[in-house]
Amino acid sequence: MNPGDKREKKRTLPNGCEVGQLGKRDTMWPAFQTMVEKGEAAVPTLMEGLQDVDEQVRGVAAVALGEIGSAAREAVPQLIALLYEENRETRMAAALALMKIGPDAVEALQTCLQSDNRQARFWAAWALTMNDPSQTEAVNVLREAWADDRNDKYVHLAAAEAIFKAMRYQSSKR
């Protein structure tokens, strides 16, 4: 076994819940619920899930970390890395988790706005705006994504959602 490869040895919680269970239909939701209930104690196991070869495990682990919220702050760098993945669902799950982690993710998300990767930049902007609609730099990225015909319907929908949230925020300040 290669000691640097976390995927070869699965971390297990004291109740026997293992990160690989997040990728199986019959065990996904009980494992998810258990890990979210364990909260901060499950964060290392879920961070292992972010590195799993199965994209479903990565996505569900990201969502679970988001449900844990700010106690999952140590996962922010790995979640940011998932914004660069090819898999759309994984990117969306990572953005949702970063949004729910909240202020502890803001600095990393702001840095991601400078990325050359348009998908990573978009999902970082979405997470920032949904968390704090006063983020004007993020709103500009969202507007670009809205106007870009290369984006799929999910990006256009998410862009609209975040832009409208920012518009409501701006009109409430008047």
Automatic annotation (TrEMBL):
InterPro entries in UniProt: ARM-like, ARM-type_fold, PBS_lyase_HEAT
Recorded superkingdom: Bacteria
One Pfam assignment: HEAT_2
PANTHER family found in the cross-reference section: DEOXYHYPUSINE HYDROXYLASE, PBS LYASE HEAT-LIKE PROTEIN
UniProt-recorded name of the protein: HEAT repeat domain-containing protein
Source organism (scientific name): Polycladomyces subterraneus
